[in-house]
Write a structure and sequence with these properties.
With about 120 residues, the protein is an all-alpha fold. About 45% of the residues lie in helices and about 0% in strands. It has three helices and no strands.
């Protein structure tokens, strides 16, 4: 990046791409109803086995990955697909960290400060 303005322009372009892709994804068919077997907590179900053919990347991740070609024009289609899969994997990991949106941090929340005094022996 030559300067701060070009960086901010690139970041805002990526943000606009994500928002447009999200709107396009929201207009797709509604999700299938949840079956009682899938309503079990994640700890009760065994870990899924890796499939031979990975699930295709979401439209948002594909759009963000495709926008990376502005920074490196030598990216192949396989590289872009790998980047999109990584973006989806990170999003899924974040969803596992905070499954309930009600526990989102508020502006005034601070980290827990623990103070302990070690007694001399």
């Amino acid at each position: 990046m030559a300067d701060r303005r070009s960086f901010l322009g690139a970041v805002s372009g990526i943000a606009a791409t994500v928002l447009l892709a999200r709107d396009a994804d929201a207009q797709t068919a509604p999700a299938a109803p949840v079956s009682p077997a899938s309503a079990l907590p994640a700890s009760a179900s065994p870990a899924p086995a890796p499939s031979a053919s990975p699930k295709p990347a979401s439209p948002q991740a594909a759009a963000i990955a495709a926008s990376m070609r502005r920074f490196d024009s030598a990216l192949s289609d396989a590289d872009v697909a790998t980047i999109a899969q990584g973006i989806d994997a990170n999003r899924a990991g974040a969803a596992r960290l905070n499954p309930r949106k009600a526990t989102a941090l508020k502006n005034g929340d601070e980290p827990v400060t623990r103070f302990a005094v070690a007694r001399p022996r």
